[in-house]
Amino acid sequence: MVLACVCCAAVARVGPAVATLSIFVTPMTEEFGWSRTAFSGAVSVGGVLAALTSPMVGTFLDRKGPRTILLVAVLTTGVTILMLSGVETLLGFYLLFCIARMNFAGPFDLGTHGAVVNWFVARRPLATSIATLAQMAGLTVMPLIGYWAMVHGGWRSGWIAIGVTVLAVGFLPTWALMVRRPEDLGLLPDGGSPPSPAGKGNTGAAGPAVEEPTFTRAEALATPAFWLLSLYTLLVYPVQAGMSLHQAAHLMESGIGASVAVSSVTTFSATSGLVGLVFGLLLRRIGVRASLAFSGVALCAASLLIARVASPFEALAAAAMFGVAMGGIHTALPVAWADYFGRRSFGAIRGVALAIQVTAQASGPLLSGVLRDLTGNYASSLAVFATLGGLAAIAALLIKAPRPPTRHANA
Description:
About 75% of the residues lie in helices and about 0% in strands. By secondary structure, it is mainly α. The protein has a single domain (about 1-185, about 215-395), classed as Growth Hormone, Chain: A (Up-down Bundle). The chain starts with a helix and ends in a 14-residue tail after the last helix. About 60% of the residues are buried.
């Protein structure tokens, strides 16, 4: 039930995703005469706001759980997206979209991953991949919903359709069914039951409980693993956000039709979700380090492929490769944080890491927009993205699980 709630919240989350926003780049910039740099800046400012607030939200998650965080995120995101249908100025666009984007990059991420981490240990990769699949399903459908409404009523109708979808899918399940931790209901992670009073009971379908590390935030920050995972994050997320936002615009400028460009966005999302599920099934066998390295190589390859797109088939193939990379990253990276540092202070630790992640995400769209405005195309930014993907693969190979912290018996 909790995982189903997480999946609904994950679908609602993608309302202000950069892939969803990408279908609005051309109609809104053409109507108002905004530059691509100015338009992309809203993603970056929203990311900076998320970076500033994520450490506080993470600490709140450890104390109160994901329910309140996700409820506030769904409501404010849905309302601000509905209000985007009435914008007339760049300032108004920034004020509204930055709030929605801050929710996407901060509270939604912490709330959904926090719920999965609290409720799953042994089955964490599979649960994470199912939540990722739900998010990618939303990212597959949400641009189509917006595009369909846009075709029939213009870009303003597109925002209305997306805002209504966010509220309809995300609010009620979270309000009615989300629970902080399995221990609050007398359960254990992975669906297990606590031992009987005599100590002879079993732990349910999941088998014996898995022993976890219990790092505090200060202890995690003192490990090389934290900073190598942060470096990996800093390298891959400018590529993810920059390519997602400008993918459709780049394809149309390369002579690819608008319908194929939108289809490439949905192809990326669908591939990412399906590949993420495969990673969820295999992650315990191949390990997070190999998964992250493979994903970095795939991200490099996707950047090179999309830079050379000349036909609809090549556009869809490049989008699929991009989906392979992000499917691995979306599954393996959250599992790595939780497996290495445990559930105890996941929100506080993830909050710091998320500040790094959303700062990286904020830089990607802005970099793409600036280089496109300076050069007239996206070739330069895609070359930078290919380099970052390759460096991320190298960084992944250096990551090792941290040693459990040493504490005094009376600590």
